Amino acid sequence: MSGLRSFVARRLLLGALQAMAVVLLVFALTEALPGDAAVALAGDQPDPARIAAIREAMELDRPAHERLAGWAAGLLHGDLGTSLTSGRPVTRYLADGFGPTLLLAALTLALLVPLGFGLGVLAARHEGRLVDRLVSSVTLAVYAVPEFALGVLLVTVLALELAWLPPTAVGHGTGLLADPAVLVLPVLVLLSRPVCSLSRLVRAGMVDALASPYAAHARRCGVPGARVRRAHALPNALAPAVQQLARTADWLLCGVIVVEALFVIPGLGTVLLDAVAERDVPVVQGLAVVFGVLTVVLNLGADLVAHRFTPRTEVAA
After folding, report:
1. Could you read off the pLDDT of 128-152 as tens digits, one per residue?
2. CB pairs under 8 A, 24+ apart, for 146-150?
3. Half-sphere exposure (CA, 13 Å, Cβ side) for 73?
4. pLDDT at 314 over 60
5. Which of 49, 81, 101, 193 has CA atoms 20 to 30 A from the CA of 231?
């Protein structure tokens, strides 16, 4: 227990340092953006007085370290800033875009876990045989196709040629559950590569465990094969699988920009794209910090779970 507490304390400290580093990095990157944000926001024929007013509103007339200190203090109180183009709080942008993104992520993860583990267990159970080779070949082929290309292909075939599904979510806004058919193609695209990665990780972990001495000893003692796979081999694959799930959840919540843009879904990725196009620096900064901190938290949780399920050599001895 003392070793576990020490590991948790170290990871929490590291997570706090990583969150601080995210804040500093986001501020430094937005500071390094080319051009003058005030000039860009002033329009095609900027008036010097308007540029000066925008610079004052953005506090660009203050030293960088003072702006960093003020921004970081606001973050500690939950204040992500105010949009320069609309005057709305950045938190409202997060609230508006988080629902569709979370819905896509939840549906994808709900399908990913049974499919990924099921295919991995199936391939490991038939290692070296036709089923294993078929699962490995199909997952490798699907993983090699970029999300954008797969999305275009599915839209062309299933939406435009066969007219089975709507091609985009245009006209539905954030109420995507009113017509669940609009979610089918985005979820299929989001599911394609993660299910391949997860199934291959589960297969590799189970194959290694089934070839281990303790699994062979269990079979010699008459333990049924299904119990060996469930009680001995599957837990060996949990640690890398949990870490992969954390990376997938992070990607689903923070990096689905291509899929949301392709299917016109008003999620966080779309909000970020619009903010970048409009040079709305506070919105970009706020979203980047939220994405970065979310990544740190998810990976921290995955490390703790993986540490709990990683086999200990002293236990085996």
Report:
1. 899 999 998 999 899 988 888 888 8
2. 147/189, 147/190, 147/192, 147/193, 147/258, 147/259, 148/258, 148/262, 150/189, 150/192
3. 6
4. no
5. 193
